[in-house]
Design brief:
CATH class of the largest domain: Mainly Alpha
Shape: globular
Number of helices: 11
Structural class: mainly alpha
Order of helices and strands: HHHEEHHHHHHHH
Radius of gyration: 22 Å
Number of domains: 2
CATH superfamily of the largest domain: GntR ligand-binding domain-like
CATH architecture of the largest domain: Up-down Bundle
Helix content: 55-70%
Strand order of the largest sheet: 1-2
Largest sheet: 2 strands, antiparallel
Strand content: under 5%
CATH topology of the largest domain: Four Helix Bundle (Hemerythrin (Met), subunit A)
Length: 252
């Protein structure tokens, strides 16, 4: 008696469900359906599209984060990163003194002034949305009392992404939080005992930058960025003058 034919086994989507989601996202990146700086679909969208649970999606995002393929910004979403192999390779020495931070600000003035000008010429609606989300997140920190360093950095990186030049993004990303001095120097002291007022003042300067970029005013964007960073440098210098006079060396 002949053996009845067996039904073919259903194709295996992946070795595990999280791996299946990872594979799907990587394929989207490899085919340029998702590009560096683009936001991934939400958890709910991935769940509906791929038929998996929220736990599976979160595990997949964790794997993508660990591999350096994406970054997750709290309250905003997950975004595709530049491939590591395309990054500039250099070492950033951590800023530990006032002199170090002022030197970083000098570098930022020269780098980010032109960055803002190019962003004004090239920014698209998604770029502007990323900048707006970062500024909204900074505003939220004045209500919650949380640190504004991360969303502040994300605003400056969003400006860099809008240039379309990955090397601006590489430099600002690798320099990381060293770009934002308030996590090493006392913001209450800079703001004369009111850190929330200080953050609000800084965000007004950010708003001027975004406004110029949104209206595609390259010279206005350059001027707004230069003024913002020059003001930051001057605020830091003035706040720490007593330390310099006392010979404290400006240590944060």
């Amino acid at each position: 008696m002949a053996t009845p034919p067996t039904s073919p086994a259903p194709p295996r989507r992946a070795r595990n469900l999280a791996g299946f989601v990872v594979q799907h996202v990587r394929e989207q990146i490899d085919t340029h359906a998702l590009r560096p700086g683009d936001q991934l679909p939400t958890e709910s969208q991935l769940m509906a599209a791929l038929g998996v649970s929220r736990t599976v999606v979160r595990e997949a995002i964790s794997q993508l984060q660990a591999s350096g393929a994406v970054e997750t910004r709290h309250g905003i979403g997950s975004f595709v990163l530049e491939p590591k192999s395309r990054s500039l390779d250099f070492e950033v020495v951590e800023a530990t003194t006032l002199r170090d931070v002022l030197s970083i600000l000098e570098l930022r003035i020269s780098l980010e002034t032109e960055c803002a000008g190019l962003a004004a010429q090239r920014a698209n609606p998604d770029d502007l949305a990323r900048m707006r989300a970062a500024l909204d997140a900074i505003d939220a920190t004045t209500q919650t009392g949380t640190d504004s360093v991360s969303p502040d950095l994300q605003f400056h990186i969003a400006v860099a992404r809008a240039t379309g030049n990955r090397y601006f993004v590489d430099i600002l990303t690798q320099m990381g939080a060293a770009l934002i001095p308030r996590n090493r120097l006392n913001s209450a002291r800079i703001a004369h005992a009111d850190p929330r007022a200080y953050v609000s003042l800084v965000n007004l300067e950010h708003e001027s930058i975004l406004s110029a970029i949104a209206r595609h005013d390259a010279e206005g964007a350059r001027a707004a960025m230069r003024m913002h960073l020059s003001n930051s440098r001057e605020r830091l210098r003035r706040a720490h003058e007593p330390d310099d006079e006392a010979g404290a060396g400006g240590r944060a």
